[in-house]
Write a structure and sequence with these properties.
Chain A: Belongs to the ABC-2 integral membrane protein family. Chain A: GO terms for molecular function: ABC-type transporter activity. Chain A: It is found in: Cell membrane; Membrane. Chain A: It is a multi-pass membrane protein. The complex is a heterotrimer of chains A (261), B (333) and C (250). Chain A contains ten helices and no strands. Chain A is mostly helical. Chain A has one domain. Chain A is elongated, with a radius of gyration of 20 Å. Chain B has 333 residues and is of the alpha/beta class. Chain B has a six-stranded mixed beta sheet with strand order 6-7-8-3-9-10, with helices on both faces. Chain C has one domain. In chain C, 81% of the residues lie in helices and 0% in strands. The chains are: A mainly alpha (261), B alpha/beta (333), C mainly alpha (250). Chains in contact: A-C, B-C. Chains A and C meet through helix 2 and helix 7 of A and helix 2 and helix 7 of C.
């Protein structure tokens, strides 16, 4: 084999190495803890919140079983991203990152591998939560295209957040600290959105903040895609938000990646 | 019996018969895995016994039984004259353990750890502080005394761990692989501290996978393999049993085969260890024989020397089957 | 007595660890506060609008209980590290009482719970929470919290002693504690739950203690919920206490 056909360049190498790393990422995390996070917690949240608020919102004329699952999906996209950020820090701490970077492996394979495994977790979460929601009364009321749009938007949301958490993760070597740091913005962003209660239930002065938060915009788009009348008017602001955030977060992640050694 | 009349005074008598550690037919199983099959040995008071064995030989289980951490399934053991099963509390009042993992609070500083253990052992607040100061000084930790333990290097951690075991001086010390993972310099420092303890009259049971460590520190050695005692004696005795003196010959690599053949024709057995050729040398004359045989074969040796076998050779001789068994008795010139 | 002294020394150590680790401190103090404020903003109108009393009167005691229950995750992780890191082993080869390490852990955590309760109640005060039943009831409030905490402390010790890793211990406690909060009266009144679920919600230890705390702060029945809480504590202590002690001797 000559140097020209090395192992570092070309789409073939990237795909093979990326999928090898993605496989390792998935296997590493395929443990009892992740089973609880992806199998047990979504069920608890869907049914727990329904028990809590189903009746209260029914009185206000809101079908909470249809309202809630898209929010739980968004919440779990945060979980995927936060877990990924902690895993990046762990890879840096253990020397795994250094090893990959010191081998004749395509630079982008590390990133591709991480994104691919996160996408798998994200899809898994969407499936589990939708199925749980189905039991509780949630339905995809639009066509197949809308369902596809729902899944793609959810995964895109997860990967956009992953770009941000990777930037944080790669700037630390303590996975626990990263997880703790990421927990705070996650809680604030998800709770101060239309995830669990509609915008008009918040105090008046807070309403505009809630309504225009990117998390709310994405959740409203997901809700629209699950409804009888999916509307492009609800989806494009979400796509625009994600595109914009992706540019910023990717830049931050790339910077952290170059500095992390 | 007129025994009282014969005794040379109570103080003197005590110094001679001070009890150390007695282990008789100790047995311990975990599920269906036999960790300790049948182990007996004695550590006379004031001596240091080395417990030598590879990973899984049963060293730590023996230590855990003797320090009351686990209860043995069979046999009997006494530490400082107290039975480990019947009198665990008295045993704990007589011992100190330095385990394989530094048993310290990572968040607290070195000084705080020592004060904590001192207070638990009822030295009082002031007493515990004073003792901590002494130990920090003696173990060269004064400078790092107020830093959290998690920032300590491996050597500092082990020293602090040993210091924590000595907050109250105990007659019997258990050191479970105290230098595993340390750099040579830190290991040398630990050895010095352990030697001081032994010279100070403590009974010490030291486990190690490092043969050099046992060789340098121990009065007697017990070699464990697979939960059994396979050899026991002083380090010199064990070396003697492996084959007394050997002659080690270093030759250029390309000529090694020829040299081995030449030596074999004249002396019988030739082994190869660490790149050098080794032949048993029961008499000083063997040296001359070696030189002559090599000369006749036209091989120039880089080095020829007589030496005693190393503890590595002792270890391999007793633990591995066949390849390097004790063979000196059968090989003569 | 020597057990008391030894336990207090070890409790001091646990407390010192806690106060020195910004993350543990943050988890224990800022987490409940954030939860308090965010939940108030989120649910204040929906839930508060459906009942007569201000939502903070329900939420503040609820968050105190949840924080205390949730802190058992930290207790389990810390205790697991002690057991497997050798610290516990050293204590066990020392001539101290067998009970002391367990009691020391519990005593240290009790101080932590008092701190969490005081801080949460103080911030709740700024948001409109009030003790309307006098000083004795306020003291009773604190005592109920500490009693209630025992349930989760025992649980944390047993989980820490049986879990294979610190992460496993944490995730084994995380899900049940969160579920208990959701299916309790800490966030919404009993009447908001569907009829078939109400007996379960009512029996939840968080609901029992919550009713007692609301009674002791805003007013309402006290004796029955306190007795119910006590029953939970006794049950947990009799069942999990000896189990923890036996596991810690292994």
């Amino acid at each position: 084999m000559t140097a020209a056909t090395g192992t570092e360049h070309g789409i073939g190498n990237l795909a093979a190495q990326g999928s090898a790393l993605a496989g390792r990422n998935l296997r590493q995390r395929a443990n009892a803890e992740m089973l609880v996070v992806f199998g047990v917690f979504p069920v608890i949240f869907v049914f727990g919140f329904l028990l809590l608020f189903g009746r209260l919102f029914a009185e206000r004329g809101l079908d909470y079983a249809q309202f809630l699952p898209p929010a739980i999906v968004a919440q779990w996209m945060f979980t995927v991203a936060n877990t990924s950020g902690a895993a990046s820090a762990a890879d840096r701490a253990s020397g795994m990152l250094t090893r990959c970077l010191s081998m004749p492996v395509n630079r982008a394979a590390v990133v591709v591998g991480r994104l691919a495994s996160d996408a798998v977790w994200a899809v898994l979460a969407v499936v589990v939560i939708s199925a749980t929601g189905y039991v509780a009364g949630f339905r995809f009321q639009g066509g197949a295209l809308a369902v596809l749009g729902f899944v793609l938007l959810a995964v895109a949301f997860a990967l956009t957040l992953t770009a941000a958490t990777t930037a944080v993760g790669l700037s630390s070597t303590d996975p626990e600290a990263v997880a703790a740091t990421l927990n705070l913005p996650y809680l604030a962003l998800i709770m101060l959105s239309t995830a669990f209660v509609p915008a008009d239930a918040f105090p008046g002065w807070l309403e505009p903040v809630i309504r225009y938060s990117p998390v709310s915009v994405v959740i409203e788009a997901l809700r629209s895609l699950a409804s009888t009348t999916p509307s492009w008017g609800k989806v494009w602001p979400a796509v625009a938000w994600l595109a914009g955030l992706l540019v910023i977060f990717s830049w931050a992640a790339a910077r952290a990646f170059r500095r992390a050694r | 019996m007129p025994a009282p009349a014969l005794a040379g005074g109570p103080g003197e008598d005590e110094a001679v018969t001070q009890p150390g550690i007695e282990v008789e037919h100790l047995r311990k199983e975990f599920g269906d895995k036999v960790a300790v099959a049948d182990i007996s040995f004695t550590v006379p008071g004031g001596t240091l016994l080395g417990l030598l064995g590879s990973n899984g030989a049963g060293k730590t289980t023996v230590i855990n039984c003797l320090t009351t951490l686990v209860e043995p399934d069979g046999g009997r053991a006494a530490v400082a004259g107290h039975d480990v099963v019947a009198q665990p509390r008295q045993v704990r009042e007589s011992i100190a353990l330095t385990g394989q993992f530094a048993a310290l609070d990572e968040v607290l500083s070195g000084r705080e750890n020592l004060v904590l253990f001192g207070r638990l052992l009822r030295l009082g607040r002031t007493g515990a502080r004073q003792r901590a100061e002494e130990l920090l000084d003696r173990f060269h930790l004064t400078e790092a005394a107020d830093k959290p333990v998690k920032s300590y290097s491996g050597g500092m951690r082990r020293r602090l761990d040993l210091a924590a075991s000595l907050v109250v001086e105990r007659p019997v010390l258990f050191l479970d692989e105290p230098t595993t993972g340390l750099d040579p310099r830190s290991r040398e420092e630990m050895w010095q501290l352990i030697r001081q303890l032994r010279d100070g009259g403590s009974t010490v049971l030291l486990t190690s996978q490092y043969l050099e460590e046992i060789d340098r520190l121990a009065d007697r050695v017990v070699v464990l393999d697979d939960g059994q005692v396979i050899a026991e004696g002083t380090t010199d005795e064990l070396k003697e049993r492996v084959g007394g003196q050997v002659c080690e010959i270093e030759v250029p690599v390309p000529e090694k085969e020829a040299a081995a053949a030449a030596l074999r024709s004249g002396l019988g057995e030739v082994a190869e260890r660490g790149g050098a050729l080794v032949v048993p040398a029961p008499r000083a004359r063997t040296l001359a024989d070696v030189v002559r045989l090599l000369e006749e074969a036209g091989i120039e040796a880089e080095n020829v020397a007589l030496r005693k076998p190393t503890m590595d050779e002792v270890f391999f001789a007793f633990t591995s089957d066949g390849t390097q068994r004790p063979n000196a008795e059968r090989s003569g010139v | 007595m020597s057990v008391g002294y030894e336990a207090s020394v070890l409790a001091g150590r646990n407390l010192r660890r806690f106060l020195r680790s910004p993350r543990l401190l943050g988890d224990a103090i800022t987490f409940p506060l954030i939860l308090l404020v965010l939940l108030l903003v989120m649910f204040g109108e929906v839930v508060g609008g459906a009942t007569d009393e201000p939502y903070i009167a329900r939420l503040a005691p609820g968050i105190v209980l949840f924080s205390v229950a949730y802190s058992c995750v930290g207790t389990a992780v810390g205790f697991h590290a002690d057991v497997h890191g050798g610290f516990q082993g050293r204590l066990r080869t020392m001539p101290i009482a067998r009970m002391s390490p367990l009691l020391g852990r519990i005593a240290g955590d009790v101080v932590k719970f008092v701190l969490v309760t005081v801080v949460t109640v103080a911030v709740g005060y700024l948001l409109g929470f009030r003790f309307e039943q006098g000083v004795a009831a306020a003291v009773g409030f604190l005592l109920v919290v500490l009693l209630f905490a025992l349930i989760f402390l025992w649980l944390a010790l047993v989980v820490a002693l049986t879990a294979r890793s610190a992460e496993a211990a944490a995730s084994a406690l995380n899900a049940p504690v969160t579920l208990l909060l959701l299916v309790s009266t800490c966030l919404v009144p009993l009447s908001a739950f569907p009829g078939w679920a109400q007996p379960v919600i009512r029996a939840n230890p968080l609901s029992c203690a919550h009713a007692a705390l609301v009674g002791l702060s805003s007013g309402g029945p006290v004796l029955v919920p306190v007795l119910q809480t006590l029953a939970w504590v006794l049950g947990a202590t009799l069942l999990l206490g000896p189990l923890a002690l036996r596991l810690s001797r292994r």
